[in-house]
Design goal:
The chain is an all-alpha fold and 84 residues long. The chain is built from five helices and no strands.
Length: 84
């Protein structure tokens, strides 16, 4: 399945959002017209896609790693940013 225009916009945004002034939540709403909740729902589904990996392996790998750390932290009963 090919990536949609929205999918590529989300991956592009994730690569460059930090260059925008203001919060990420505001930038998501302004640039993509999505709530932050919907944005993260779409992003998390997107990072499982081989097409997304082919389009932007750096962003997809970073988010897969982040998701794995968060899941491990939940399983171990600690927050993702706390020491082991």
């Amino acid at each position: 399945m090919a990536l949609s225009s929205r999918d590529t916009q989300i991956l592009d945004f994730e690569r460059t959002w930090w260059t925008s002034a203001g919060s990420k939540r505001v930038a998501i709403r302004r640039q993509l017209g999505l709530s932050s909740t919907r944005y993260y729902q779409v992003l998390h589904a997107l990072i499982d896609s081989p097409e997304a990996m082919a389009y932007d392996p750096l962003v997809v790998t970073r988010w897969r790693r982040r998701r794995m750390v968060n899941r491990r932290a939940r399983f171990e009963g600690r927050s993702a940013g706390s020491p082991r």
